[in-house]
Specification:
heterodimer; A: 839 residues; alpha/beta; five-stranded mixed β-barrel; five-stranded parallel sheet; B: 594 residues; five-stranded mixed beta barrel; elongated
Chain lengths: 839, 594
């Protein structure tokens, strides 16, 4: 790629509008040696003697970075806008005789004192100095002031490029706009011309800094102010700079594109000078140029003396969110050159900045006639992967506590933010959001509130000591069939920023977490992520949680508290982030909730897992006529009324998503002192509640896990209001939510009080007490009736005795067996089948 | 505006250019016509609509394709199967001193690049196929005239006269040719217009499995698919899977694929462009001038004959119900459900709920019973509805079939699966042939697609990198031995045939009336009075109090049935009487299940 262009050439004529000064650096952009380019120019100038147009500076040769074969755009615009004959395209449309149509243009320009790019209001000098000013003087907003004596942002960048011998300089279009909106406007409207000047200015600067720097540095513009969609590209966008989002679906093989060809005479062995591609063709010499030889048709291409540049054609397809209903995705071709080749792989979501071009299609390869059709493509200037999962994952934990300004690819303009802020100021925003969440699911308002909290999420915290607290809220919905749990799940899945939906029945442990597989080609072991890792920073919805295999479920323990997945197999030991909120739903064990059994028995999940859910909702189908009536009315209205009218003051999904992602990324509420106090007070009270006077039972009401849950929920509630501080009422509401969920899920059916023990161990305090009583009375009976070493007694007989003694509570054989088993471990009795013997 | 100084039929491009020149001549800049019409459409609208010449325009099908001249006006009826994006073309260019246009044509092959003045315009490319599952009788209207005209094409005049003859003849033939019955879609497309018979014995049909028809969609080749180029329309106007009639200029892409070699650096070689592929297949191309969305009723021939009076509706309903009862072996309840099922149509969508669907699962059908009832039923459905299709659900079929549409990036085309159906299609799924076996991943995916279609009326389109759900409106009839668990239909009904009667002879008039009835009644709008609403709500609450298993799904189907019941009587409001009928029906059904 070495370029033999002497830097001095640039130096000599830093600002002179001389043809060669302009053309050589540009000509070099594709790393063809300047020698060739300038030679070509000389040819060009030789030609241009006839056409004055060529004397004007912005008329250099091809801007080679766009020089595709036929890519010279045929005159697409009408007369007033036909900008033939300036940078970026050859003076003539692709296949006509040279120069003829340009004459009037040249005249115009000769007369005008400042040199304008033909057909535009671009003055070359002006643009040039504007760019120079920009590169030299632009400073970031934050660095302004204090470091005023330091170099500007891009001067630093240029130095860096020189240090690392880079080949391009990324220029943020936002910076251009901030510095000089006019320049930005010109750049977007006439990218070919302005970028050519940009490159020249840049090369001037580079050679000033380091005259010996050999590589050619290109400008790459990215981050345009506005981006369009593929669908909206229309003829008026041709030759404009556009920015698009999409998904790479295909990449062609790398095409070596010939830039310079060398021919050798078969007769005398004479090597021709390199011939540069001219508008996509190489004019093969028909005659040996050597004076002595002059053999006809003897020239043959010498491949290894030719110069090639990489080229690749990439196909970009619309992402699903841009496709309107009843449409199929559009695609567009991208042309990648040099370093951009292989920058995106199929499946990548990218944002591309480039120039939209149209080229005419020839009837046949040898024909000059073209069809009336145009092929369109985007000459790629810059490609950015918008899917940042990897980038975030690298320094994930650090980002967590700080603000994540760059995390989301959703861009918010001022007006939108203003709208969202206004929404957040509504007094009933909490209720409104609740209503907007799955509006067609009736009732279940408190469940929806909980889900809302989950969507907004709390703050993750990482202490300097290394301990971290998750900010994700996990929710379990347990309920009767037909209570629209799955619908809620589906809805959340669609709404959440990165949701994965799996069904417990079909998920295995590896499918959920991560697994190691062997690459069939390279035989290397590779780590593949499962649903939980994939939904990192999102919500993982697991349907039919109860039907999940034991093994798979146990994998969730780590994920739900530590938020990581550890893998140790096949020579790979890894810990992957899985900072995901889990939303699971399960049916009670008998498919219908049995109120006589405890929640644990109903859900039949290990208590260790259960305690990791912040909110456990029991959705019970109560035979309540009022609810039924609501349901009936709801469905009738669904069928007979205009569904649009039925649900008015709810937010549409788009607004809801925007609101959500804005809040998640920009609002990081902190606990106020008042709220912290309330939290402490409430927690103490919760713990004391089981202890009220008159109750002899000791019931554990709340665990430290709950206080974490409470903090998370209150933070989420503050986020809902776009508030930076957690107020007291947030905490109160969090307590209410927890209680609503717990009252349903942790009501001890024997006592009617909240009993966290039920969730943490599976046995309620009163149940435990009952069992203890049973053991005591059984022991008493055995002590009474049985002699040491005497005859044994049948279980049923003991049961009879027990029933006689205590009429207060029912005793089952099953309970008795448990009690006997306890006694057996104490060494009081020995059991043989149904016979109990005192030892 | 302009007299018929040019032949819109034979030389539409002439008419277009003339109007263009006129418009430019009157001082308009061609740039003013970016994305706009300059008056050419008015000419054609006048010619086609006001002068009623639409029927003279030949319909594009496999027959007419052989003789239709390029650059003449043709019609094409089809479903939008794929969208190939937008295409830029040199819309207007300066040729010498005057402006010329390329709109509605492809012809400009002169080196236009020499002209500096070119306006680039864009047009949309749609790939259209014949409506999937289109039945012979619905197709016949379009095709009949063409077959006759195909004999002679030397003289445009004579041709036109001939066509007119065909028109008149066509209407005489009409009652008979409707009822030509064939078994497989491919055979269906073979025209048998030559043998019109006034009525057809249903029993004459080959006793073939009702659903054994080949599932292969007619591929490009045996029936014409058409590349339609649409100009200046809003994107929302033309949607995937909509059925349209396009009238426009016919061209055929007869250019061979440009040779790749030697042109290696060209953009085309990176990927074969979409067009390149189509060109290779010589796909007919239509530059659409006028398009019109078609509803089911547009496929009926006799629609204007019947006046929509209450009396007629009642009579038709009675006779159709009788017919269905007979078909189902004298099972009146099943016939009633079948009628409601045939009238169902999705009229609203709220989030994931498709309101108005009524899929029906007829159970207690063994393989043997199916050979009797199933055949009759399938044939009858084919005669009643314009678009029907059927799927034999076997393990092998599930494992191999391509049900969901899938994007083929090699060809840059959407491969239409069996489930890419037009709105209002009817799909029969025969589960009786299902035996135990192992499903592979394709099979599981297919089963899931079917389930989604039954439950949500949505089909997932596979675009490799992501999937997109497209709303569908398909009437689903499941035939099974026991309750189908793969396909959870709204209504499960055990059939109780009591009597195997010989299939009756159906008169063409009756068939016509039934078709009209089914097509018209389902499009009626519907409301509910507040008194009835209260009654309904009370009933629903009572039902739920009595049986906790009844949930919103059951409520929904009950209400849908109520709606359909009153529609079946041609009523637009739900009356107490019809509501009672629905409840009675449900009671009978419940008795059967228990």
């Amino acid at each position: 790629m070495a370029s033999d262009s002497s830097p001095a050439r640039f130096n000599n004529t830093p600002s002179s509008p001389d043809d060669s000064a302009f053309s050589s650096p540009i000509g070099d952009t594709i790393s063809s040696p300047a020698a060739g380019t300038s030679r070509r120019n000389k040819r060009g100038r030789g030609r241009s003697a006839a056409t004055p147009a060529y004397d004007t500076p912005p008329h250099p040769n091809n801007h080679p970075r766009f020089a595709g074969s036929e890519s010279t755009p045929t005159p697409l615009h009408n007369a007033s806008n036909s900008r033939r004959g300036h940078g970026g395209r050859p003076p003539t449309p692709s296949s006509t005789s040279e120069g003829a149509p340009s004459s009037e243009a040249g005249d115009d320009m000769d007369e005008a004192a400042p040199t304008f790019v033909w057909g535009t209001n671009i003055s070359v000098q002006e643009v040039k100095s504007a760019i120079q000013m920009f590169l030299k003087n632009f400073r970031d907003a934050q660095s302004q002031g204090a470091e005023i004596y330091e170099d500007g942002k891009y001067m630093k960048a240029i130095h860096r490029v020189l240090e690392i011998e880079g080949e391009w300089l990324d220029v943020d279009a936002h910076d251009v706009f901030d510095y000089n909106p006019e320049l930005y406007g010109k750049m977007v409207r006439y990218p070919l011309e302005v970028l050519a000047i940009f490159d020249i200015v840049l090369m001037d600067m580079v050679s000033q800094i380091n005259p010996l720097f050999e590589k050619h540095v290109q400008v790459r513009i990215f981050n345009l102010k506005g981006s369009t969609t593929m669908r909206n590209l229309n003829p008026s966008d041709i030759e404009k700079m556009v920015s698009l989002k999409g998904m790479v679906i295909r990449c062609s093989a790398i095409i070596p594109e010939i830039r310079e060809a060398t021919f050798r005479c078969l007769v005398c062995g004479y090597f021709s000078d390199p011939i540069v591609v001219d508008r996509g063709r190489i004019s093969e010499p028909t005659l040996c140029l050597k004076q002595e030889c002059q053999a006809k048709n003897s020239m043959t291409l010498v491949h290894n003396r030719c110069r090639f540049a990489d080229k690749q054609i990439v196909r970009l397809q619309e992402t699903p969110d841009e496709i309107p209903e009843g449409g199929t995705p559009h695609t567009v071709s991208l042309l990648m050159h040099d370093k951009l080749v292989d920058a995106g792989k199929p499946g990548d979501r990218v944002e591309v900045t480039g120039i939209y071009r149209a080229m005419s299609v020839r009837l046949g390869p040898t024909q000059r006639t073209v069809k009336s059709l145009f092929k369109t493509y985007i000459d790629c200037l810059h490609i950015k992967k918008t899917d940042k999962s990897r980038m975030v994952a690298e320094d994930a934990m650090e980002i967590d506590s700080s603000t994540q300004k760059h995390d989301e690819d959703v861009e918010f303009d001022e007006a939108k933010i203003e709208r969202l802020r206004e929404l957040s100021k509504l007094p009933d925003i909490y209720d409104r959001l609740t209503r907007s969440l799955a509006p067609n699911i009736w009732e279940l308002d408190d469940v929806k509130r909980g889900l809302l909290c989950q969507l907004f999420g709390g703050n993750a915290l990482k202490l300097p000591s290394g301990a971290s607290f998750r900010g994700d809220i996990n929710i379990l919905l347990v309920g009767d069939p037909g209570t629209s749990k799955s619908q809620l799940l589906q809805y959340i899945h669609k709404l959440s920023p990165r949701g994965i939906y799996t069904s417990g029945r079909g998920s295995s442990a590896v499918g959920l977490t991560a697994y190691v597989s062997r690459d069939p080609e390279t035989k290397e072991t590779v780590l593949e992520s499962g649903a939980l890792v994939l939904s990192d920073r999102g919500i993982c919805c697991i349907d039919e949680f109860d039907k999940m295999s034991e093994n798979a479920r146990s994998m969730l323990h780590e994920v739900m508290e530590q938020q990581t997945v550890s893998i140790a197999k096949a020579g790979i030991i890894a810990t992957l982030n899985a900072r995901t909120s889990v939303l699971a739903c399960a049916n009670p064990i008998g498919s219908r909730y049995n109120p006589r059994l405890s929640v644990i028995d109903n859900i039949h999940l290990p208590p260790t897992l259960l305690s990791r859910f912040d909110l456990i909702y029991l959705i019970l189908d109560k035979a309540d006529e009022q609810t039924d009536k609501h349901l009936a009315r709801h469905i009738v209205s669904l069928h007979f009324e205009d569904p649009e009218l039925a649900q008015q003051d709810v937010l549409d999904i788009a607004t809801l998503t925007a609101y959500l992602s804005y809040a998640r990324n920009h609002i990081n509420p902190q606990l106020s002192d008042e709220a912290a106090e309330e939290l402490t007070r409430g927690y103490v009270e919760m713990r004391r509640r089981g202890n009220f006077p008159g109750s002899s039972k000791k019931v554990i009401t709340a665990t430290p896990r709950q206080i974490e849950s409470l903090i998370r929920i209150s933070e989420a509630l503050a986020r809902i209001r776009f508030s930076e501080t957690v107020e007291k009422h947030d905490v109160t509401e969090a307590f209410r939510l927890l209680e609503v969920a717990m009252q349903q899920s942790a009501t001890d059916h024997a006592t009617g009080t909240i009993d966290m023990d039920l969730i943490t161990t599976g046995v309620s305090a009163s149940e435990r007490m009952r069992r203890e009583n049973l053991v005591i009375s059984t022991r008493n009976i055995i002590m009474e009736k049985l002699q040491l070493g005497g005859p044994s007694m049948r279980l049923l007989e003991i049961l009879e005795e027990l029933k006689k003694q205590s009429s207060a509570f029912e005793v089952h054989l099953h309970d008795l067996r448990n009690a006997i088993a306890t006694l057996q471990t104490e060494g009081v009795v020995a059991v043989h089948g149904d016979n109990v013997k005192r030892v | 505006m302009v007299g018929p100084m040019y032949d819109c039929l034979a030389n539409p491009l002439g008419a277009i250019r003339l109007t263009f020149e006129k418009a430019v001549g009157s001082g308009c800049e061609p740039s003013a016509f970016d994305g706009k019409d300059w008056g050419a459409l008015d000419v054609f609208r006048e010619f086609l609509v006001d002068q009623g010449n639409l029927s003279q325009v030949p319909v594009l099908n496999s027959e007419t394709l052989k003789w239709v001249q390029p650059n003449t006006l043709v019609r094409f009826r089809g479903m939008v199967q794929d969208m190939l994006g937008n295409e830029f073309y040199a819309g207007a260019y300066k040729d010498g001193s005057g402006w010329r246009t390329n709109k509605f044509g492809d012809d400009s092959q002169q080196p236009i690049d020499s002209s500096p003045d070119v306006r680039v315009w864009e047009r949309r490319l749609l790939y259209c196929v014949p409506v999937p599952g289109l039945n012979t009788w619905a197709e016949s209207e379009a095709a009949s005239e063409a077959t006759v005209t195909s004999m002679d094409l030397t003289s445009q005049q004579r041709d036109k006269r001939q066509r007119m003859d065909a028109e008149s003849m066509d209407y005489e033939v009409c009652p008979g040719s409707n009822i030509v019955l064939e078994d497989s879609p491919s055979a269906k497309r073979m025209r048998e217009d030559g043998h019109p018979s006034l009525s057809v014995q249903l029993s004459d049909l080959k006793p073939e499995g009702p659903c054994s028809s080949t599932m292969m969609r007619p591929e490009v080749g045996d029936s014409p698919s058409c590349l339609v180029k649409v100009y200046d329309t809003r994107e929302s106007e033309l949607k995937l899977n909509d059925i349209f009639e396009f009238v426009g200029v016919f061209t055929i892409e007869s250019e061979p694929v440009p040779a790749d070699d030697g042109d290696d650096i060209d953009l085309t070689t990176g990927f074969r462009n979409d067009l390149v592929h189509l060109q290779a297949n010589k796909v007919p191309c239509l530059h659409c001038i006028v398009h019109r969305k078609l509803a089911v009723s547009d496929f009926l021939r006799s629609s204007p004959i019947i006046e929509q009076s209450k009396h007629v509706v009642m009579n038709t309903r009675e006779s159709l119900l009788r017919h269905l009862t007979m078909l189902l072996g004298n099972d009146g309840v099943a016939a009633n459900y079948m009628l409601l099922h045939l009238l169902s149509k999705i009229h609203a969508r709220v989030d994931n709920v498709a309101v108005g669907k009524l899929s029906l699962n007829l159970t207690c059908l063994s393989k043997e019973a199916l050979s009797v009832f199933g055949v009759q039923l399938c044939n009858a459905l084919r005669n009643l509805l314009p678009f029907t299709d059927s799927i034999p659900l076997t393990v092998n079929y599930l494992n191999t079939a391509c049900l969901g549409p899938k994007k083929d990036y090699q060809r840059n085309r959407l491969i239409g699966g069996t489930l890419q159906l037009a709105e209002g299609s009817h799909l029969t799924i025969d589960e009786t042939q299902l035996e135990t076996g192992t499903l592979n991943s394709v099979g599981i995916e297919n089963a899931r697609l079917l389930k989604d279609l039954v439950e949500l009326q949505k089909v997932e389109y596979d675009f490799t990198y992501y999937k997109m759900e497209m709303a569908a409106d398909v009437q689903l009839l499941v035939l099974s031995e026991g309750k189908s668990n793969i396909l959870p239909a709204d209504i499960v009904l055990p059939v109780r045939p009591s009597d195997v009667s010989r299939p009756e002879v159906v008169s063409a008039e009756a068939l016509g009336a039934w078709r009209w009835y089914l097509a018209t009644m389902r499009t009626l709008s519907h409301t509910i009075e507040s008194e009835i609403q209260e009654v309904v709500e009370k009933d629903l609450v009572a039902a739920r109090q009595a049986d906790r298993r009844i949930g919103s799904k059951e409520f929904s189907s009950l209400l849908t049935m109520g709606r359909l019941m009153s529609l079946s009587f041609g009523e637009t409001t739900l009356s107490l009487e019809h509501w009672e009928m629905v409840k009675e029906l449900e009671k009978l059904r419940k008795e059967r299940i228990n």
